[in-house]
C-alpha cells in the first residue's frame, strides 16, 4: 500500500466506522446487557483535561450519555452528585427537578442507575479533605453524603461509593492521622444513618456502602491508600454499621502501588467485602492512567476474572476508565465504550473456559493430590515426592496463555 492521501475531516467518522466493522467480533447490545456492566457518567463525559492537559472533547450531558449507553447495550449507569447537579443546587428543589429528569431519561432508555457517589475531591471546599479540622467542612461533608444517599434511593441505586482521595496531605505534621480518620468515620456513619432512615421511608433495602482506595493522587500522602487499609478501617471499631460498609476496589488502584490485583481482590473476597468493582487498566507505579480494560494487562485481567467467576462474584463491573484524549467525542461512543465492553465480555467468557479447561483441571487436581510421601517429618522425601508435579505450575500458566490467544481452539501460525 502506498502512502495514504490525507483523510478530510468529513470522511474520518466513516473511516472509523469501516475499520470498527473490519475488526469484527462485536457483541450485540442484547448480549452486552446480560452482564452487570455500569457506565459512569464521568467516564463518558471526561473531556481529556488530565493534569497538564487542556480538554480535547466538548461537554456531554447525562441525556446523551444514557441514550448512548443504551444503544451500546450498557444496562447500568453511575454518577457523582456533581456530575449532574450544580454544586449550588445540591439539596434544593432544582436538584430534585434534575433527578426527575434523570429518572425519566433512564426509564425512556431502559437503563438502571446502579450506583451514586459523592464528589469529595474536586471543589475547593475539600482542600483540606472532607474530614478537615473545621467542623463546618465536616458538617457539609455529612450533608453531601446524606444527600447522595437520598438521590440514590430516588434513582433506584443499590450501591453508593466513597473514594476519599483527598483524605491525606501534601506536607507532613499538619494533619493528625488518627483524628482525621475518626472524623472520616463520622462521615460514613452519618451516611449509613441517613440511609437507614431513607430506606425506611421508601420501603427499600439500605444501600451497599463501598469504600474505594487509591494509593496516591490527588493528595501526596493518602490515609487509606489500599483495599487492605480499607478493610482494617471497616473493622477498626470506628464505624457504627460495619456490616453496611464494604469495598469498591479498582483494578488499577491496586496495581499502582505494586500489588497483584488478583491477590488484593482475594483478600477482599475472604473478608466478604467485594461488593463493587471498578474495571480499567494501566501500569505499575505510575499515576492513575485509567486505560480501558485489557489494553495493558490482558493476561492478568483474565486471571482476575477467573478468580471472580470461580467465587461467584455477582456485583457490578463499573467501567471507571477514561477514554484517551486522542479519542474524539464521536469515538467515545463509536469505539471506546463498545470495545471496552466487548473486551470485558471476551475476557469473562475466556475465564469460564479457563475454569472448565480439562488440562488445567487435571493439573490442579494432581497438584492437590500431591506425591504421596508418607513421612511428613522428612523434608527430602516430601520434596522428592512432589518434584515432577510442580512443573505443572508452569504448564498451567502456558495453558492460560493458550486460552488467551485462542491456541487451545487450534489457532496456529505457519512458521
Ligand atoms: C479516581 C477514582 C474515581 C472514583 C469515583 C467514584 O481515581 O477512581 O473515579 O472511582 O470518584 O467514587
Ligand atoms: Mg474508581
Ligand atoms: Mg483510577
Describe the structure.
The chain is α/β, with parallel strands linked by helices and 415 residues long. It folds into two domains: 329 residues, Divalent-metal-dependent TIM barrel enzymes (TIM Barrel), CATH 3.20.20; 52 residues, no CATH class. The chain is built from 16 helices and ten strands. The longest helix is centred in the last third of the chain and has 28 residues. The two termini are 24 Å apart. Bound molecules: D-glucose and magnesium ion (2 copies).
Features:
415 residues; alpha/beta; TIM Barrel; 2 domains; eight-stranded parallel beta sheet; 16 helices; 10 strands; globular; binds D-glucose; binds magnesium ion
Structure summarized in a few sentences:
By secondary structure, this protein is an alpha/beta fold.
Uncertain spans:
none
Report the strand count: 10
What CATH calls the topology of the largest domain is: TIM Barrel
Helicity level: 40-55%
Using only C-alpha atoms, the radius of gyration works out to 24 Å
Task: Furnish the topology, listing elements before pairings.
Blueprint (H helix, E strand, L loop, with lengths): L8 H15 L5 H4 L4 E4 H5 L16 H11 L3 E5 H4 L8 H17 L2 E6 L17 H21 L3 E4 L5 E2 L7 H26 L5 E4 L9 E2 L4 H8 L10 E3 L3 H6 L4 H10 L6 E2 L19 H13 L6 E2 L10 H28 L1 H12 L9 H8 L5 H14 L10
Parallel strand pairs: 1-2, 1-10, 2-3, 3-4, 4-6, 6-8, 9-10
Antiparallel strand pairs: 5-7
Helix pairs in contact: 1-13, 4-6, 7-8, 11-12, 12-13, 13-16, 14-16
The site of one magnesium ion has 6 residues, from helix 10.
Amino acid at each position: 500500500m502506498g502512502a495514504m492521501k490525507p483523510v478530510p475531516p468529513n470522511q474520518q467518522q466513516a473511516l472509523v466506522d469501516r475499520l470498527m466493522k473490519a475488526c469484527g467480533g462485536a457483541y450485540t447490545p442484547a448480549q452486552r446487557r446480560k452482564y452487570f456492566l455500569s457506565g459512569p457518567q464521568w467516564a463518558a463525559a471526561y473531556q481529556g483535561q488530565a493534569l497538564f492537559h487542556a480538554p480535547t472533547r466538548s461537554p456531554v450531558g447525562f441525556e446523551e450519555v444514557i441514550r448512548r449507553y443504551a444503544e451500546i447495550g450498557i444496562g447500568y449507569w453511575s454518577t457523582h452528585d456533581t456530575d449532574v447537579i450544580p454544586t449550588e443546587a445540591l439539596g434544593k428543589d432544582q436538584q430534585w427537578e434534575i433527578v426527575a429528569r434523570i429518572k425519566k431519561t433512564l426509564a425512556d432508555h431502559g437503563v438502571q442507575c446502579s450506583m451514586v457517589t459523592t464528589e469529595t475531591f474536586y471543589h475547593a471546599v475539600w482542600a483540606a479533605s472532607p474530614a478537615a479540622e473545621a467542623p463546618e467542612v465536616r458538617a457539609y461533608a455529612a450533608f453531601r453524603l446524606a444527600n447522595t444517599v437520598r438521590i440514590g434511593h430516588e434513582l433506584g441505586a443499590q450501591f453508593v461509593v466513597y473514594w476519599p482521595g483527598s483524605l491525606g496531605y501534601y506536607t507532613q505534621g499538619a494533619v493528625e492521622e488518627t483524628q482525621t480518620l475518626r472524623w472520616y468515620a463520622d462521615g460514613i456513619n452519618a451516611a449509613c444513618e441517613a440511609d437507614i432512615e431513607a430506606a425506611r421511608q421508601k420501603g427499600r433495602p439500605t444501600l451497599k456502602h463501598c469504600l474505594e482506595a487509591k494509593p496516591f493522587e490527588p493528595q501526596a500522602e493518602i490515609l487509606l491508600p489500599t483495599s487492605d487499609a480499607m478493610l482494617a478501617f471497616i473493622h477498626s471499631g470506628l464505624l457504627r454499621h460495619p456490616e453496611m460498609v464494604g469495598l469498591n476496589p479498582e483494578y488499577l488502584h491496586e496495581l499502582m502501588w505494586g500489588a497483584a490485583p488478583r491477590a488484593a481482590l482475594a483478600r477482599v473476597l475472604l473478608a466478604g467485602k467485594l461488593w463493587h468493582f471498578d474495571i480499567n487498566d494501566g501500569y505499575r507505579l505510575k499515576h492513575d492512567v485509567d486505560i480501558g480494560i485489557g489494553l495493558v494487562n490482558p493476561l492478568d485481567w483474565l486471571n482476575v476474572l477467573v478468580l471472580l467467576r470461580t467465587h461467584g462474584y455477582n456485583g457490578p463491573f463499573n467501567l471507571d476508565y477514561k477514554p484517551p484524549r486522542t479519542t474524539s467525542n464521536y469515538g467515545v461512543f463509536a469505539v471506546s465504550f463498545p470495545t471496552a465492553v466487548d473486551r470485558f465480555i471476551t475476557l469473562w467468557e475466556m475465564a469460564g473456559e479457563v475454569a472448565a479447561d480439562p488440562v488445567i483441571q487435571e493439573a490442579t487436581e494432581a497438584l492437590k493430590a500431591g506425591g504421596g510421601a508418607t513421612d511428613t517429618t522428612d523434608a527430602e522425601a516430601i520434596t522428592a515426592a512432589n518434584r515432577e508435579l510442580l512443573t505443572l505450575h508452569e504448564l498451567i500458566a502456558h495453558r492460560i496463555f493458550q486460552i488467551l490467544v485462542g491456541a487451545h481452539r487450534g489457532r496456529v501460525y505457519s512458521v
